[in-house]
Design goal:
Ferritin, 5 helices, 2 strands
Length: 239
């Protein structure tokens, strides 16, 4: 009779599997990854302008978007030039994984019917992307092996932080969010201190979309690129 030996039957020949290229995190990889985020920022601003919703009181944000787009292109060119000096190829595309995880879902939520203020949500998205870029540059400073590259990275990173600070003023105007608050009883400023000489590398919370019945909104958590979203030297730009 038949004997069941728990073996799995197979027919034909198994296809050959090409091994993945060795993925080493080098200075060039970190720079190419930073360049990819510059293009994520450029695409975010271009989408914001194409939607045509930055009007009225937010018309000035449209002008900011144009200026920041130029800044990010200059940053991308500068970072790519550094990567080329290291023998790598420039990367002139946005980071696909960052786009698929954060930016594309955010834009889908923002542009859905019923969102009472998509324009302000676009500003919030741009603010989150700028913070993401700033955090990325800050995070790679400790990973780059060349001290000169660290200086170049943080110089660009501080410009991204300045972009974020300006957009924060659109979202929450005034000095209340950036300066000491007064004590209501004494009228004197409350004691305040800068918690750290460096910016936070924690995830970035982005609340957008149509409010739920309880008043809350969808919150996305943006994080700096990890090992599976770095632009390794084997990754080719699909422009």
């Amino acid at each position: 009779g038949l004997v069941d030996d728990n073996a799995i039957a197979s027919l034909g020949q198994a296809p050959k599997i090409s091994p993945l290229a060795e993925a080493e995190v080098t200075d060039a990889v970190l720079l190419r990854t930073a360049a990819s985020l510059e293009y994520n920022a450029i695409q975010t601003y271009m989408t914001a302008l194409d939607l045509g919703i930055l009007t009225g009181d937010l018309a000035r944000v449209a002008e900011m978007a144009k200026r920041f787009t130029d800044d990010h292109q200059q940053h991308a060119d500068a970072v790519n030039a550094l990567a080329v000096k290291l023998g790598a190829k420039e990367y002139t595309c946005s980071n696909t994984r960052i786009n698929d995880l954060y930016i594309a879902p955010a834009l889908k939520i923002i542009t859905e019917d019923g969102n009472p203020n998509p324009a302000m949500d676009i500003v919030a998205l741009a603010h989150a992307v700028e913070n993401l870029a700033a955090e990325t540059y800050q995070s790679v400073v400790g990973l780059l092996t060349d001290p000169m590259l660290r200086a170049d990275a943080i110089r660009i990173g501080q410009q991204e932080a300045r972009h974020a600070a300006l957009l924060a003023q659109i979202l929450n105007p005034g000095l209340q969010g950036v300066g000491p608050t007064p004590n209501e009883k004494t009228g004197k400023p409350n004691i305040a201190a800068v918690p750290s000489p460096f910016g936070s590398l924690a995830n970035i919370q982005l609340a957008i979309g149509k409010p739920k019945p309880d008043g809350s909104r969808i919150t996305l958590l943006l994080e700096t690129p990890s090992l599976n979203s770095l632009i390794y030297e084997s990754v080719v730009c699909q422009a």
